[in-house]
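Expect sequence, tokenised fold; for instance:
***
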Amino acid sequence: MLRTNDAIPPRLTARRAVLALTISLLWVAAPSSWAEESPIADVTTPKVSPFDDRDYRVLTLENGLQALLVSDPEADKAAASMNVRVGSAQDPDDLQGLAHFLEHMLFLGTEPYPESDAYQRYISDNAGSHNAFTAQQDTNYFFDIEPSALPGALDRFSEFFLSPLFNADHLESERNIVHSEYMARIRDESRRENDVLNQLLNPDNPTTGFAVGSRDTLANPPEGEATLRERVIEFYQQYYDANVMNLAVVAPQSLDELEALVVERFAAIPDHDLSVPTVDVPLIDPDTLPRYVERQSLQDRRQLRFYFPIPDPTDEYRTKPTQLIAHLLGDEGDGSLLAALRKAGLADGLSAGAGRGDGNEALFTVSISLTPAGAERLDDIEASLFAAIEQIRDAGLAQWRYDEQKSLSEQAFRFQQHGAPQQEATRLAMSLSRYPVEDVQYAAYRMDEMDSERQQLYLDALTPDNMLRFYSAPDVESDTVSPWFNTQWKEQPPTAAGQALSGLVLPEPNPFIASDLTLQPGQDEQPSALIEAPTFTAWHMQDSRFNTPSVEWRVSLQHPSASYSAEEAVLTRLLAGWLNDSLNESLYPAWIAGQAFSAYAHARGITLSFSGWRDGQTPLIEQALTQLQQADIASGAFERVRYQLQREWRNAPQASLTGQASRTLGEALLTPQWSTTELLEASQRLEKSDLENFRQRFLNGLYIDAMAVGNLTAEQARDQANLIRGALTPRLTREDIPALEPLKVSEEPTVLHPHSTREESLVLRYLQGRDTSVEEQARLSVLAQWLDTPFYQQLRTEEQLGYIVNAGYSPLLEAPGIGLIVQSPDVDSGTIAERMDVFMRAAQERLSALTDDELAAPRQAVYERLRQRDTSLQGMANRYWQATALDDIRFDRREQIADLALEVSVEELQALWPELLSHQLDIRFNPGDSPSDIATYREARTPFDAR
């Protein structure tokens, strides 16, 4: 909350003075004078849900910029997003990645705020966050911040588009950071597939270029030509213009306040009369189709995609002619294409829909996740797909089906839940750039009437002659390698016609559509105990603040042996996975209608999660419990679920390196824990009979925690809780369930290596607190906040060690800790650790000289972050539910820590620092490192001090 009264730079002072003078003169002028002098050309109010109590206003400024203002008095964060309708499609051929590089350069100083970290530090000091992304036809910049600091944030943010310095001192370092970002993603499977796909699309289409950029593509041009910095400035001047910008601001201030803030800062963005760049080159040459392509995946995963070029349907959002086709092909219910493939043992997942639109053309994609058996029958799967398409052509495009989709969309629109302000601002800025202002909120849901002619046009594009078949698997080998992500691929000749599977049936009318969507009044502040029995505890919280007649149920089925051994841990996961799998077909219509169920395993057992409309939730709960207790475990379902888990564990060494490091930390300092290698080996020893026996043992020895949060009364919740309790008849107590315990870090400096096959280097340095008290949690939260920006500035911006650099508060259950992480494509972990050591020594010196005034901003930032309101019913339910996993169940712990953060003193942090350094654990990795024996390290640890 500091720096809201910063000295105003002269340039801004002048601009504000002119505006103030203009306004003062207008008080005595005729009304028409305001229209002539105002920088606002038009004001519109978009269509919103009748249950949306926020205020909206869309401004069109005279310079062409459109700004959507959302006043949400309940918001505890302010956020803004600027979407610029320019992206990698505008990259020049000789400087691929230039749009992305420009995005990076705008963060590095402006005329009024020339310091390279001025924007970042202001955001961080005021409990905020920021980022940006570059897409093919968009570049989006966004932030959120403590609301009183919004004017200062907009001061700095608006200057990106008025007076960027294109800081020459940081040109080389930022190029290295872009290269690090490229290298951090070079093994990402989606980017590898897209790299191959771009070789198959029309090379003249500008969306098929290399978007990220690298040291090579962003190298300085030869002497005598324009420098890289000059080319960046040229690109900015050529494409960045108020006419191609769309701003969204979500904040608690009134609309009039927000309007003044925006007009004052953004009306001066230049208007060069530019328009949004368009693409008029075909996305794919139809004469090259059909094509059959295979590419090598790094992960043990087999995927089959069918791409069909179609007209881009974005502008047809009012009728959505592709939605019903995608719904029918992507159906997962009985008789669907996926159900037939699952029954035959060929696939375990399917999705369908239009994407990769460039404003002219798009790709309709059907994506199928294959089993090993499915990889041997690609032609039969293709034949089955076209049989399903033919079925839709014959009888699928019925008016009642469209009307059903329209009704569900209207329900979703009426009761939509808003995300966090930053998420909302980004979504709305993107929507404002695509749709008329009146439909900026409604476009995604709007379905006016069925356009049979357009539906038929899109369906007619889904033919074997208009198809690109794309198969990915680890055993594909080729001498042809894609240019940017090093992916082996090859083109295959057309194959023989396959045999379509039988049993395909179009879905019947959905029986799960809710009819009672009334909102029940009543609001609790936090959950309270509804039923307290030795074997069963249930909490309830009635809520109406989200204006949705929905309920979130969580039911934790806890068993003493759920994690006793690797085999038991696998069986727990198999049981949860089987329950999801076995209910997939029967409950898919419920999911479409707004009712969701899932089961997931954890250290103490399995949690059943029910989310959706209050109306109809009881039968869903009954069906899930009956299935869990009574349904046969089919051999095919067991094998399918086991294969999915084994695939996940086999792919673990290829996963995100930061994720692997975090998992290694958890394996080292939490017990009980089992490595992916141990889980994989255990799964290979288990058969269906083991799961059947485990299910019986599991259900015969349960303790249950349950919680209902949402728009239902205590009496309604009690009825459902008693239904659950009566069906499962728990017999054990909470004391019978072993706790998941944090462990104490060794006092001797230790380095552990994850089991990884990645090609980057990494250091995750974990500093563990002294005890589990809320006071200690507050201290480490404030200290982590104080470290964050300097750590990022020194190791990323200045030393260019890597793209992924951050420091933050990282508790393990109730054990507080701080995690500092750096991932690099070309700096080894030893060097990274040395640079971290240098930073830590400098931090100690800074800490010794720290004043209470200087600590005020980090304290306030922690307070504001912890005091943020929940932005969705599901998010709030999950937060309260997580509190029940701790031994000391308190639903106000977050608020308690927030209040204590304001009381943290400099002296406390100075006393804490040496203790942290003496309880330090490094997770390090260089390509080729052998994995450490994590189990031996864990077994030598003692329980963490729970004071």
